[in-house]
Amino acid sequence: MITTTARPATDLGFLLHKHPERVQEFGQSFGTATVFYPEAGDERCTAALLLEVDPIALVRSRGKSSPDFSLSQYVNDRPYAASSLLAVALADVFRTARAGRCKARPELPGTPLPLELRLPALPCRGGPELAARLFEPLGWEVDAQALPLDEGFPEWGQSRYVRLTLRGTARLADALNHLYVLLPVLDDGKHYWIAPDEVDKLIRAGEGWLHGHPERGLISRRYLGRRWALARTALARLAELGDETEEELEPAVEEDAPAGESAADEAAAAEAESQGDAPSEEVSSEEKAPKKTPLNVTRREAVLAKLEELGAASVIDLGCGQGELVGALLARPRFARVGGMDVSSMALTIAARKLRLDRMPDSKRARLTLFQGALTYTDKRLSGYDAAVLMEVIEHVDPPRLAALENVVFGHARPHHVLVTTPNIEHNVRYEFLTGLRHPDHRFEWTRAEFAAWAARVAGEYGYQVAFEPVGEDDPEVGPPTQMGVFTRDQRS
């Protein structure tokens, strides 16, 4: 059920494209989905999606390839619990709402609403804790209560089901896409064959939030039915397009590996071994093929190498996100002072958890400063560092506000070196699946000539020299995927 209290609450009907005064049924290959409104008023409106599963139709829709034991095809929990079946029905019934379109009221889809989402019975392999780990980073207040096996026999313990309630303020399209992706992840068992096009579905539904989710590895792997090759494909695409998205098959459920201290392959292998889910010897040639280094890893390594070459002893990461570069800097004792600043308090919270600040040795903790701030306002905390890094940051700034950023970094903070990386839009043609810019929050992406012109102007205005280096494979026709400008302050200025 979806409830809102934004007045007039019946605008929910416009967003869902389902009239509050009607009961509507939608046939599915495995049963019938019904949409109705238990309450519909100006103060409060609730839309309910009821899925009635026909076990016979479910078996027929799966065909002879179903691996289930014959009796379990007919006797199972699918008619009684929210699962991948509900996710499929939700995607079909609310297709236009998920896309964020409303012809009658075009301003509504972009408006965040106070929402409450309720699922009375949800299979959750990982318990209430996993539900919180998946939904809380998306801004939801999570109330997940484990359901007993039998209320009459409490000594039997808890079942694998939870009663889940989510509360928060979000666009309805985002809320529906969160459910569409995460319901089968919690269930950890899709009812249909996982084809390669599921990667495209995951990327589309996860646009704007999956690339930065701390559990993106687990989400990708479970959504794709633990098919290693498809999970790698999805994570590689997220790493290419996301600003600082690491390639991980599945971080440990209990706790992430410390940022900057372990390679993705080691984390994936350890997790697979711990869950008894390592790939068997009969693995396809695609899965055995060596993995291409994700662009974000290549970019981070290029920045670290340049900082070492420049001899910087103190570095601040401006727009540090979830702390990947900060962690890598802390792992190298030569960087005696490390700073991290970001405008997002949520990103800093995740960074603190991934860096394990609560258990960090005092000697390392003394080298680190994390704080919230905006690059368009002067801040004395930015001063005093040998080098500052703007890694995939400037393209998130509205062009009219770039001048303020330039003044803050180059005019007031004035580190001896400034490293700036940004996407090379000319290289976008090499991404077959990409339409538009690489990230929905990018305000622009520059050609090599545009970046060079901007960097030369900034260097001239603030007394710096600038040199350019490619990051990633330097394509002879369209250049590298990332371009890096290395600014060095003129000793006379």
What does this protein structure show overall?
Pfam families: Hen1_L, Methyltransf_12. Keywords: Magnesium, Metal-binding, Methyltransferase, RNA-binding, RNA-mediated gene silencing, S-adenosyl-L-methionine, Transferase. The chain is of the alpha/beta class and 493 residues long. Helices cover 33% and strands 21% of the residues. The protein contains 17 helices and 14 strands. The strands form two sheets. It has a seven-stranded antiparallel β-sheet with strand order 2-3-4-1-5-7-6. It has a seven-stranded mixed β-sheet with strand order 10-9-8-11-12-14-13, sandwiched between helices. Helix 7 crosses helix 9 and helix 8 crosses helix 9. The longest helix has 16 residues. It is elongated, with a radius of gyration of 25 Å. About 11% of the residues have low confidence.
- What average pLDDT do the residues reach? 83
Helix segment count?
17
Q: Give a short account of the largest sheet.
A: 7 strands, antiparallel
Structural class: alpha/beta
How much of the sequence lies in strands comes to 15-25%
In percent, how helical is the residue content?
A: 25-40%
**CA-CA gap between termini:** 63 Å
Gyration radius, in Å: 25 Å
* Uncertain runs: 63-71, 243-289
Based on Cα principal axes, name the global outline: elongated
Please report the total strand number as a whole number.
Answer: 14
Main sheet: which strands, in order across? 2-3-4-1-5-7-6
Domain Hen1 N-terminal: 2-239
Protein name: Small RNA 2'-O-methyltransferase
Pfam family, one: Hen1_L
Family: Belongs to the methyltransferase superfamily. HEN1 family.
